[in-house]
Structure formats: structure tokens, C-alpha cells
Amino acid sequence: KLRAELTRKIEAARLKGNALVPFEFDAITSQTAFTLPKGYTAVSVYSGELKKREGATKTWTRSFDGFAETINFAVAPGNAVWVSILAKQSN
What gap in Å lies between CA 3 and CA 6, rounded to an integer? Predict the structure, then answer.
């Protein structure tokens, strides 16, 4: 169900000329940082098939080291939890 929703969003964005690319990670026990490839910025973040909210008082924040964007969770998602980050190319 979630994968179908993500596919629908990706297709809708592609038609608008702003294609989203999913990056998937299998979290390890204490992992809280997930780095995107250079040139991409996060649009939405899912963990354990639930959409997470961005912000310092919410679930995740982002940081940029001048090369790549990193998504930082306040609390580690857990061992073997699926993390999916929908991203678009940065301008």
C-alpha cells in the first residue's frame, strides 16, 4: 500500500517536471543519520511505513555539509527498520 502511494507521488511529480527519487535504507540499531547522494534534497521521510514530520521538535531534521544533505532522526528508527526518503534534485 505504501509503495503504491509512493509510486503514485513519483509519477505525479514526473508529470509536473519535478521527479521525486526514492532512497531506501535499512536502519541499524543506533543509526540516526541517513545521507542522500550529492545533489538531492529531501521532500518527505518515511520510517516503518509512517510519514515523519520535519522540525527540531518533531521526528527529523536536515543538515548540509556543503556537499550532501543528511537526514537526522531525533531517535533511531530501530534495527532493520525501513527508512525511505523521497528526494528531488537540488537547484
Answer: 5
